[in-house]
């Protein structure tokens, strides 16, 4: 005789399942369930192996994988499930651990630490690159084309050096590009006496300043000597002017003496000699001049 089918509300009775079927709300009757995948909590998946699934109140049910990696809990003294005293049938597939895809606080902390390390590493690389660029910009190593602490000045040179610089093209350093050197050549204030010179770094600039200061001291010393010489010349000129003035006074006195002597000699020569017509004419002119001066003097006296 065929076994009687299981009733819905029997307590403790079992119903054989010739074919996989799903029983809903039977009390105590085990119901086999096909292998299915049910959704877990918070997006996790729970794999259920082919096992008999029971109903509530004493039926046996497979234990799903706990959410967040927790151990399965038992209900009211039973192992697994929600039955009162019922046992849970587990299979090797159901006992395998199921990875959780949700982020725990430890995972979030690890992710944040990884992001911080990545940010710090990128910041350190950026800072190292900036320091390297700054070092290259002020590194005065010969041949460093990236050095920004450089400038082209002009130095005086003799004719041979200027000829070699202009005719043979000698003088352009390797770290100076052709365009900058050509501009320096074009803006040379005195191509016949000056040549462009590249100065790179603090040491070369300090050396150039020291040379200029030494030349300045030398020129200052020469200027002091010239001023002393000029003062000596001025004193000599003043002495010579005074001496020349004395000579002029002596000459004037000698001229007066000569005139007086000539007058006396002329008087002696013309003694007992009749007066010439020219002499009488000059005598009349002299008398007229003397008379005019006398009238002028009387007029000034009246005023």
Automatic annotation (TrEMBL):
Presence of the UniProt keyword Transport in the record: yes
GO function terms (MF aspect): structural constituent of nuclear pore
Region annotated Disordered, chain positions: 21-42, 81-100
InterPro entries (alphabetical): Nup54/Nup57/Nup44, Nup54_alpha-helical_dom
Stored PANTHER family: NUCLEOPORIN P54 (PTHR13000:SF0)
Pfam families: Nup54
Keyword line: Nucleus, Transport
Localisation per UniProt entry: Nucleus
Domain of life: Eukaryota
Protein name: Nucleoporin Nup54 alpha-helical domain-containing protein
Organism: Leptocylindrus danicus
GO biological process: NLS-bearing protein import into nucleus; nuclear pore organization; protein localization to nuclear inner membrane
